[in-house]
Amino acid sequence: MHWRRVLAATSVASAVVLGIATGPGNAEVSSRDRPGGTVNLRLSQAPQHRQRVTRTKRHTSEARRKEAINSNTVGLAAGRIEGAPLRFAAEMARVLDDGDNMRVLPIVTRGIFGNVFDLLYLRGVDAAIVYGDILDHFKKNPEIAGIPRRINYIASLFPAELHIFARPEIKSLKDLEGKPVNFNTHGTAAAYSGPIMLERLGIKVDAKFDPHTIAMQEMKKSDKYAATVWVSSKPMAPFLRGKWPEGFKFLPVPYTDALEYYMPAYLEHQDYPALVPEGQRVATIAVPAVLAVYDWPADTERYRRMVRFVDYLFERLPKLQNEPGYHKNWKDVNLAASVPGWTRFQPLTDRLERAQRERPKALPSAARMGLPTSSEDVIRRQVSRAAPGDPAEQERLFHEFLEWRRRQQQ
Questions:
Q1: Burial class (CB in 10 A: 0-12, 13-18, 19+), 373
Q2: Is the pTM of this model over 0.85?
């Protein structure tokens, strides 16, 4: 019997060693499985299998979440942190947010001019805020072909007014002929829109592209700069703080047929109390800021993503227009209005046509969708803001704009 006790002890020791090697719960010695005093060892692989299944499920769930977040996130190139485009982008992000179903990611960029390159080339950028005259600039650039075909628009967002701030000896635009005029640094809105505007007005200047902060200080001391040109939504902070010597002023800018991409506007006392006398205003022009999108092929994921974006914007625009706390210029956004020289993004055209079919009687008032009855409504609101309290001037501007648009459509 001695050899039997040795065999039993050896079996138990082996079972213990195997239990340690395979981990807790994988080896079990049961007295119920010892017929005739023999130890019976059972090895179970179930816990390891459950761990593998759990890891697989977790990885599958995370993959689905990652896919949902990326498929429904729209990268929106906005502009510099101090500019109006970033505020509009942030407000869109707030209102269109719908968890993993829709997210707008505003992006601080080098500037509204550089947003075109980001829209064309930068990964993760699906839409961008640019100015309406950007196409005119790139039509002359042989290195980037077909811009009007490659970039479409979704909406005109807000006007950016032209500010020409001049020294005392400069009395009119004609006085700027051949003079040094600063357009801020390359890449800014003024640096590309400003020269285009003056060129269309027939004014040839000695263009400078230095930081405006430097040029503005130099203007107080010498005639190194006859004027500075700014293109942004009014009022602009640099003209609200500090005092300027007698005679510094904004130059009036006439609206002419040559200004294809622009609209009439005014700088008023309420905008710049220290520079525009009460009861007076300075005529100027404004360029619309455009929500632009790359014209992706219809069978791509990025195209489908922008279709979802259009649907969300269409449905939630009334909140931006009617609830307090959002920029006042949202009230003038009309998704049915055209932008001169631009092609509308096809999904928006489809959405507008579907709305007409579904609610033909409700569309003219379109209060529930935030759409004015026609583009004329938007023009009337713009001219009323340009000439407040002056019905005769509003009517003159309104008919002037309609006549210009009629000639453009011939």
A1: middle
A2: no
